[in-house]
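cache lookup: miss for this entity combination. No prior model stored, computing from scratch. Input as submitted by user K.M.:
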Amino acid sequence: MLDDFFTRAILAGIGVALVAGPLGCFIVWRRLAYFGDTLSHAALLGVALAFLFEINITLAVFGVSACVSIALLLLQKKGTLSSDALLGLLAHSALALGLVVLAFMTWIRMDLMGFLFGDILAVSRMDIAIIWLGGAVVLAVLAIIWRPLFAATINRELAEAEGMNPERVNIIFMLLMAAVIAISMKIVGVLLITAMLIIPAAAARRFSSSPEQMAVLAAVIGAAAVVGGLFGSLEWDTPAGPSIVVAALVLFILSLMPLFSRTKTIEMAKPATETQKGTRP
Amino acid sequence: MLQKPDSLVTLDNAGIHRAGRWLVRGVSLSIDTGEIVTLIGPNGSGKSTTAKMALGILKPDEGTIQRRADLKVAYVPQKLAVDWTLPLTVRRFMRLTGHVSVHEAESAMASTGVSHLAGAEVRTLSGGEFQRVMLARAVARKPNLLVLDEPVQGVDFSGEIALYDLIKRIRDEMHCGILLISHDLHVVMAATDRVICLNGHVCCSGTPTVVASSAEYKALFGARAASTLAVYEHHHDHTHLPDGRVEHGDGSITDHCHPDDGHHHHGSEGRSDA
C-alpha cells in the first residue's frame, strides 16, 4: 500500500494536519500568526545548514526554529523593539541568510520550490515515520501542558498567581511549534505552513463550544483539507501543497455559510453581544 | 515586621524598581486569615504592583515577602479579555487553572448568582455578570487567599453594592483572607478590616469608619447604600516631584516621604493609625 506515492502523500498530509490543528488553535487564540510565519521562514536557514553540514533536514529545521524562538523570547525580555518588529527582523534575516548560504554551496543543485511550497508527492516511508512519531510526541506533550498553556492564554498573570508556570509552558509551546514546522515543511513548504496551522483552526471556531472541541475539529478539518487538496491536485494537475491550502480555504468559507453555522442564530438573538464586549473593561 | 502565625502573606519593606524608578517602595503589610484588606490610592500609586508582589508574580527588588507554605491563591485580575476566537463557556472557565468537580463548580456559581449562565460564552457576558463569574471561579478553587483587582469596575452602582455584599459573604463563609484593590479612592467597603492607602509607598493605613458621613455620598448612593459603603477620606497633602523628592502641603520639600514625618494631615472623618 505504501508503495503508492499518492497513499504516502495522504498519510503524511493527514499526520501533519492532526498535529497542526490543535497547535494552530493556540496560534489563533494567542494571535501568533506572524510568529508561525517567522519560524517557517527560518526553516529555510535550517535547510541550508542541513546541506552544509550534511545532517538530517528535519532535525536542522527544528534546531534553527527552536533557536529563533528562544532568540525571540530573549529579545522580547530586553524590550528594546516591539514584538512585531522583532519578528520581522528574525523572519527575513533567517530567510535571507538561508538563501545566501544556499547560494554559496555551488555544488548543490536543489529544488528551492520544493522547500518553499512543499513536495508532498515525494515523501518517503522514513518521512511518514518521522511525521507520525514526531507528531505523536508533539500531541502528547501538548496534552500534558494543555491546562497551564490554556490558562496562560486566557491570562498569564492569573495562571502564574494560581501556581502555574507560564514561562515554562510558553517555551515548551514554542519548541512544539518548531517541531511542527520541521515535520510539516516537506508537506506544504515553508511559505504555506502557517496556513495549515491557522485556516483549519479558524474554520473550526464556529462549530466549537469548548477549546478542546475546537482543537479536535481543527485536526479533522485539516485532514479533510489534505485529502480534498490532494485529490484536487491529482484531478486538475495542480501543485499539491497549495492545493491543500486552497481546500482548507474552501472549508473555511463553507464554515462561514449560515447553513452550516450553529452559533449564528444564537448571535442573532443576542444583538448586544458585540457592544457589551466593547464596554467591558 | 514579625510574621504572625495566622498571617497568609507578609510584605516587609518591599519595593519594585523598574526602568530607573521605584514603582512602589517600602510597603509593609500583612493579610491574615478571615481579614479583608483594601488597597486604595490614585492611578500609578502601585496598587496592582503591590498586589502582584503579594501574589508572587513580581519578585521584590528590595525587602522581603513571606508567603505561608499552604497558601492557595485565587486571583481575579483587573483585565481579562476573551477573544472571539476562543470558545469558552462559563462552565469551562470554572476549571481554568485546576480541577473543580461539577458539584463544586455549581455551588460556586450558585453562591455568586450565575448558575443560569453556566452554558453561556464568557465573551457575551455583561460587565457585572462577568465579575460574578470571575468571583465564582475564584471561590470554586477554595482559596485561603483571594486577591481582587478592582472587582467593581465596569459595574453600575447597584451592582457595585451587591458585589461588595458578595465579597463580604465569601469572606464570612470561606474564612479566607481577601486583598481588595479599589479604583475608587473614596469608596471602600464597610466590611474592610483595614484600608491601606498607597501613593508610591504606604501613605497611611487604618480601619475605615462604617458610616458614610459626607452628604454627597448619601445623595449619590442613597440611605441603603450608606450602610454598605464606608467612606475613608483623607487628603493627599503632598506631591511627589519628578526628581523623587516630596513637596509637602506646607511648602517644605524633603528627600523622602514618611508617614510619621509630621507633614501628613488626615481628614477627621477617617481614622488613620499610621
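stored under new cache key. Chain A has 13 helices and no strands.
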